[in-house]
What does this fold into?
Amino acid sequence: MKNYETMSEAVNDLNKRGYTYNFNLGDTHIKCAEEDLQLTPDEFEIDEVYRFEGMTDPGDENVVYAISAKHHPIKGQLVNAYGVYFDKASEELIAKLKVHH
It folds into this structure.
């Protein structure tokens, strides 16, 4: 895995390396709006994870996940503030994301 100074540096490099789709966190899945696709935890792999602390508050942490779909030719990114929105996600989805955190 690479070492990035900023979240934007990580996002830009992952884009260059083919992680071009944007994923969002759903209740039981991650969503790819560009392809109208929903992936459950067993349908995707987390290839890389990068964490970034906030400049003014180290408690403000963002996470960038590099994700590839198992049965679709799609690679993308899920950017999430650590802990935010996890309360709406299923236990299975949270477990998958936290293992790599």
Summary: The helical segments are 7-16, 91-99. The two ends are 13 Å apart (CA to CA). The longest strand covers residues 44-53.
